[in-house]
Design goal:
seven-stranded parallel sheet, 11 strands, binds NADP nicotinamide-adenine-dinucleotide phosphate, alpha/beta, 17% strand, Rossmann fold, two-stranded parallel ribbon
Length: 273
């Protein structure tokens, strides 16, 4: 029987690429997004249904899950992909900026997971794939809030796996390194206005250094394939580090003390330790 995946954040980037990969492999795909008008190209693919879903809106989550089950009979795999990054000094972030970051990247994952669990439990089958980040396992300057959400997802995923495994449901976490998507553009929300005030020199130095990181990223297509592979590999692997940059970064950190890591990152970003 044809299997079904529900993916969040399919308007662009990794989510859209994952939707294409599952469709190419003959799956039913509930390609969900905030604005279904962004899904015209995906809608043309066989087996793809484009549905409205804002992860911060429980009613829209529940409606999309119900519609997927009605259309395809079940949800075999949930991919929690929707997310964005808040960047800038923590002190400059308003409560609204912080709440939006956590509502999307953390509570959004809780909302969709809660919505699919009853039907997965009833069938004693399912895979939940959470797209965290290498930034859920290690850190860079000026991303404290984004890291806080992705570290939360890493911990949530691993712990949730223990209680769901006896019910036949697997939880897997993907930690991509840099991926060429809109993420570094429209999905990057600053915490600050102007030059960053008392943090201006850190903001200027780190921003200039990040320019040097552009390029050499994984493609969204390769992430789509990595997500599909994780969903279908039949193993109990729980963590997938995706991208040569992510693998190299985490390997390098393993060999360092925390003090050495901080010194390396300060050096990389031109910051005074
Ligand atoms: N690109 C990277 O370097 C990278 C690295 C590691 C991890 N990641 C993670 O990968 C995931 C996808 O990012 P991407 O790189 O593909 O960036 P992207 O191209 O900017 O896509 C982000 C997606 O998230 C959606 N989204 C944002 N808020 C949402 C909400 N409230 N409800 C539903 N959808 C929402 C966006 O939808 P709209 O079009 O409606 O805004 C868009 O479809 C994120 O979780 C990100 O943290 C990315």
């Amino acid at each position: 029987m044809k299997k079904t995946v529900l993916i969040t954040g399919c308007s662009t980037g990794i989510g859209a690429a994952a939707a294409r990969t599952f469709a190419e492999n003959g799956w039913n795909v509930a390609a969900t997004m905030r604005n279904p008008k962004d899904g015209e190209a995906l809608k043309a693919l066989p087996g793809v249904e484009v549905l409205a879903l804002d992860v911060t809106d429980e009613a829209s989550v529940n409606a999309a899950v119900a519609r997927t089950i009605e259309a395809f009979g079940a949800i075999d795999v949930l991919v929690n992909n929707a997310g964005y990054g808040t960047v800038g000094p923590f002190e400059a972030a308003s409560q609204a900026i912080i709440a939006r970051q956590f509502d999307t990247n953390v509570y959004g994952v809780f909302n969709t997971t809660r919505a699919v669990l009853p039907s997965m439990r009833a069938r004693r089958s399912g895979v939940i794939i959470n797209i965290a980040s290498v930034g859920g396992l290690t850190t860079f300057p000026l991303f404290s809030l984004y890291h806080a959400t992705k570290f939360a997802i890493v911990g949530f995923s691993e712990s949730l796996g223990f209680e769901l495994a006896p019910l036949g449901i697997q939880v897997k976490m993907l930690a991509p390194g840099g991926v060429s998507t809109d993420f570094a553009g429209r999905s990057m929300v600053p915490t600050f206005e102007g030059d960053g005030g008392v943090y201006a020199s850190t903001v200027a130095t780190v921003t200039a250094s990040f320019e040097g990181f552009r390029g050499g990223y994984s493609s969204s297509e390769s992430l789509g394939k990595a997500i599909f592979a994780a969903a279908t590999d039949g193993t109990k692997q729980t963590r997938y580090i995706v991208g040569d940059d992510a693998v190299a970064m985490l390997e390098a950190r393993k060999g360092m003390t925390d003090e050495q890591y901080v010194a390396v990152i300060n050096g990389r970003f031109g910051l005074q330790g």
